Amino acid sequence: MHEPNLLQALDYSVLQQCMHCGMCLPTCPTYDETLHERSSPRGRIRLMREVADGRLDVTAAFADEMSYCLGCLACQTACPAGVDYATLLEHARGEVERRGVVGGWRRRGLRWLTLDLLFRRPWMLRAVGRMLWLLDRSGLRRMLRRSEIMRAIVPARLWQLDAQSPPIRPPFSPGRIRPREHRDDANRCVALLTGCVQDLVYPHVNRAAADVLLANRCEVVTPPQQFCCGSLHAHNGELDLARRMARHNLDAFDLDELDAVISTAGGCGSHLKKYAHLLADDPRYLARAQQWDRKVRDIHEWLGEDAGRRLRRFLPPDARPAGRTATD
Q1: From CA 60, how far away is CA 316, in angstroms rounded?
Q2: Is 122 helix (H, G, I), strand (E, B) or coil?
């Protein structure tokens, strides 16, 4: 008897949410490009449901369709039924990796180097960042780009990625932000997530975020030993690695002292709010993950809420939102 796949292990109602109404089609870049039903969100959900029902096997063709999705989640915002497409896609990709239907030593080596090695070790990721910065500063990177030998060795797709990559900007966040910064009149305490790629290429944004939070009377806690949020791992089907990263971050913060956990990286935000779902089967971490989910905010969310709190204090009682008080 076959072991149940990850899609079969899901609550089946998640798979049944899709009404196949087609509202997602105009928002999907891959469907817009191909006009193939299988390359639309509802088409992929249909494939996932067939796998969950045991009527379709997980093959290389299924894997290709799941990887062809950009994961932009534009379909999720357009869906009138509230389909949790992100969870479905992560589990489908996880099943692809579990079955090993796509591979090759190059792919396995690259995934091990990035997802398992670099993005699980912040010190190593920063070391690579410093090395890339030195290559840029010395001019060696430009020389390598022009080298015919290097162009013959390195795959063309990596050269394309290299050309699109933003510059590395040391010093990184720990060199710009102290572990705890406060002002005498602070009335809230928030944690600032520095991210992984965010820490390498946008540390100045993290510093600016800390300044804005301080200006809004927040004490800012920024542990130097933070970890990747795990979104890269979850989106690439490595759910076990994503769970490990979530546990690392939960251990790095004292949630009881925090009013909010602030993220400045939009790509991480949706995943950071799903730790409880990710760790639903982990009794040691579930309660803390639920507490984390309640406190995670994108910085714009927090500043908007904060402005609303301050504004309500100056509104007359009859102008305040129903059920709210001046001290909410």
Answers
A1: 63
A2: helix
pTM of the model: 0.83
Amino acid at 227: F
Amino acid letter at 106? Answer: R
The pLDDT tens digits for 117-176 are 999 999 999 999 999 999 888 888 778 777 777 777 777 777 777 777 889 999 999 999
CB 193 within 8 Å of CB 264 = yes
Residues 72-114 have pLDDT tens digits of 999 999 999 999 999 999 999 999 999 999 888 888 888 999 9
Cis peptide before 29 (omega within 30 of 0): no
Q: What are the C-alpha distances in Å from 327 to residues 80, 188, 207?
A: 35, 13, 30
C-alpha–C-alpha distance, residues 2 and 86, integer Å: 26
Give the other-Cβ count within 10 Å of 242's Cβ.
Answer: 27
Q: Is 206 helix (H, G, I), strand (E, B) or coil?
A: helix
DSSP for 301-324, please give it: HHHHHHHHHHHHTTS-GGGSPTT-
> Can you tell me which residue has the tokens 């939102």?
321
